[in-house]
Write a structure and sequence with these properties.
single chain, about 180 residues, mainly alpha, 2 domains, 3-stranded antiparallel sheet, 3 strands, about 70% helix, about 5% strand
């Protein structure tokens, strides 16, 4: 599945929830799926134009947000189901923190410690946000809620693993700093 198809899947998926503008699509992706997905306005607006041209979405009479709103069509729902059933593409990871640590010998333990402490703080913040999302989701009777809980669980496990890695790495960096003295 191409990157373009992945963006189409994300946009069609969000529009399957309710009609919305391009701005609202981006906000929904960021707020609801930011744990595992992102799309820029530069990806969303051309995708909306293609989906409209292909008849997968149509202008909505009245959206909840200002600006042009779009609704998924029946053809769009069929396309969304097809995209959801395709194999998940493998994408190479990109992690700026790990990139910096890989070259850590050039900057030493002090700078690397700052990088790892930032990772630890980020993971702790993510756990707090996920706990709030889980509490909010617990009140939802939406049929999609159990599936969203699966995603929250993945995020919680990843954040806990990040915290454990950070603690282990900070201990190693302290040993490296002591060895340099």
């Amino acid at each position: 599945m191409s990157k373009r198809s992945q963006t189409e899947l994300a946009v069609l998926g969000v529009l399957s929830i309710e009609p919305m503008s391009g701005y609202a699509v981006r906000r929904t992706i960021t707020e609801s799926m930011g744990l595992f997905w992102s799309e820029s306005f530069g990806q969303i607006y051309p995708t909306l134009a293609r989906l409209l041209e292909d008849g997968l979405i149509a202008p909505a009479a009245h959206g909840r947000t200002s600006g042009s709103s779009y609704a998924i069509t029946d053809v769009g729902r069929r396309q969304l189901r097809q995209l959801l059933s395709l194999p998940v593409p493998s994408t190479p990871p990109r992690n700026g923190r790990l990139l910096r640590l890989f070259f850590g010998a050039l900057v030493g333990p002090r700078t690397c410690t700052e990088v790892v402490e930032e990772a630890r703080a980020s993971a702790a913040g993510a756990l707090a946000r996920l706990a709030q999302e889980r509490a909010d989701l617990g009140q939802e009777s939406d049929p999609g809620a159990p599936y969203r809980r699966l995603v929250l669980s993945a995020g919680e496990h990843a954040a806990r693993a990040q915290l454990a890695w950070a603690e282990e790495s900070l201990a190693e960096l302290r040993r490296l700093a002591e060895a340099e003295r």
